[in-house]
């Protein structure tokens, strides 16, 4: 009877197989993510030990991009931004502000995201880097054209 049910429902077998594959992939990605975070932690300590603030900022930025929690992500990205400002790396400031804006949008703060995007575009103008200018302007237009949240109304 069980074989007959299995044959009668190949969809059940396919779904079960797909769930098994998904579990394996998730565990593999989780393991890879943990290894990656450990490597970044080592790199962060290395850059701090040798006083390489650009390396430190780049690792902090990567930490921020890997975080699932937007508040934690924003904290890492802002730490990186502070270092980029201290160093005077305008390109990295502009690029990092694009990541900050994405996190601010995830947090539901579209005004802060637009401000970050405007700042990114302004910095990109200083260094004459059109790709960041265009990206920031496109994102601002998308944000401004999306309907305002109704908050349950």
The top-level CATH class is Mainly Alpha
Radius of gyration based on Cα positions: 22 Å
Any idea what the CATH superfamily is called? Tetratricopeptide repeat domain
Helix content: over 70%
User: Helix count, per DSSP?
Assistant: 7
- How many angstroms separate the termini? 53 Å
* Mean pLDDT metric: 85
Mass-distribution shape: globular
- CATH structural fold name: Serine Threonine Protein Phosphatase 5, Tetratricopeptide repeat
| N-to-C series of helices and strands | HHHHHHH
Summarize, please.
It is built from seven helices and no strands. The protein has helices at 2-8, 10-50, 53-66, 70-87, 90-106, 110-126, 130-145.
Task: Give a written overview of the molecule.
The chain has one domain (17-145): Alpha Horseshoe (Serine Threonine Protein Phosphatase 5, Tetratricopeptide repeat). Helix 4 runs antiparallel to helix 5. The chain is globular and about 40 Å long. By secondary structure, it is mainly alpha-helical. It has helices at 2-8, 10-50, 53-66, 70-87, 90-106, 110-126, 130-145. The termini are far apart.
